[in-house]
Specification:
Length: 67
């Protein structure tokens, strides 16, 4: 069951990651993906949102051609 939940959460996060045209949009989309992934995996939603926002922002800064 954990593997299935993890796969669903990972798919959700990767689908929503790297979206947004502005820094604010990237933070919001990343936070949403992180929170959703944490909720699916029964984790801390606030921590998931923080990690998702930071990860999406960092990803788009490192790979601007993919955002």
């Amino acid at each position: 069951m954990f593997k299935k939940s993890f796969a669903i959460g990972f798919a959700l996060c990767t689908t929503l990651a790297a979206c947004g045209d502005t820094t604010g949009e990237r933070l919001v989309y990343g936070a949403g993906a992180g929170a959703a992934g944490a909720a699916v995996l029964d984790g801390n939603v606030a921590a998931g949102a923080a990690v998702g926002a930071a990860a999406n922002l960092l990803y788009c800064q490192e790979n601007p051609h993919r955002c």
